[in-house]
Amino acid sequence: MPSVQLKLDMKRESKSYIDSLYAVLTAAGLFEGPKYRLSGLTGMAFKFTVHERLLPLSVSAYGQWINEHKPGMDNLGIYTVFDCGRTRHPTFRHYQQDAIEWVKDSLDKGAGVIYWIPEFGVIDGYDDEDRVFFVKDGWSDEPHVVLYDNLGLNFTEFWYCQAVGGKVDIARELMILESLRLAIYDWDTPYKTLPNTDIASGKLAYDFLIQALRQGDYDEGGAVYILDSYCYSREEILSYLQEARGLWPEIDEAIRLYKQLNELLPLIRNAIIPNGDSRHVDRCQLDALIGHIAEAKQLEDQAVREFRQISDRCPDPRRSIIPRWGIHTPK
After folding, report:
1. What confidence tens digit (pLDDT) does each residue in 139-150 have?
2. C-alpha triplet 154, 156, 161: angle, nearest 5°
3. Which of 11, 70, 125, 267 is most enclosed, with most CB atoms within 10 A?
4. CB count in 10 Å sphere of residue 33
5. pLDDT tens per residue across span 273-298
6. Contact status, residue 14 vs residue 60, Cβ threshold 8 Å
7. What is the DSSP string of 205-243?
């Protein structure tokens, strides 16, 4: 019976989707460079979402995943296919059985598959005799084992698989420009999971974070996870923009603003203290922490204004050209 085991370097550092995507693309020879560059080009570094009670799901609940991930893949010029949805749907088993075959096909071709565990991880092997997939979560070298018949099943109601294919070359300047437009969209969109309004995105996410900390009724582990992810992503943004220095004058100003923001990150991290085997926000430092977050919000808002100036004077055919059938898809 056939089996495959790829060698993928999956390590949790950034958002779990980027960690997974980086492992898959670098192993397949579809991306070269540091992880922060991938996080920036896909726009993922700029995504910031916060649940009103700071639940840990905040970090990965940044919208409908296909809608959030596909623009980044398009910006990389990489072909991709998805299967995802809710496991309660009566058609789930049909899609699951189909996914088993194309996941194996991707592995046979040497490309891992991004998979919602939760959070995101990578399917890097299978064994037909035992009818199992092997999944890496990035935290441990030991793989998870998922039965074929359990593919997609987890304690959430969602399932997700994504495979990658070929690549076309896109000019670096165009990719950076599009990533800034993705950043603007995220900043300006207050809710990505409508009709629910308990998770805020972009600029409003700062307000949700400040309000929850001020009220004091929030999930302790979630608060730490949100702040950890926030700090790491803002470091990614600065590193990413520094590589684009000189492309436009506004980029240099945005770099200056993100440098100021990054100077606040040690102060934010210092407000997280050990608590036995876990960590929590130090209530004695709440006022100072809220002040640092509010200052960071103002700096990021100014940086996004710089992105807008770049976007406004550069052609944007993706958003300005209406297909001949209008704004609707053809029937």
Report:
1. 998 889 999 999
2. 65
3. 125
4. 11
5. 998 889 999 999 999 999 999 999 99
6. no
7. HHHHHHHHHHH--S-HHHHHHHHHHHHHHHHHHHHHHHH
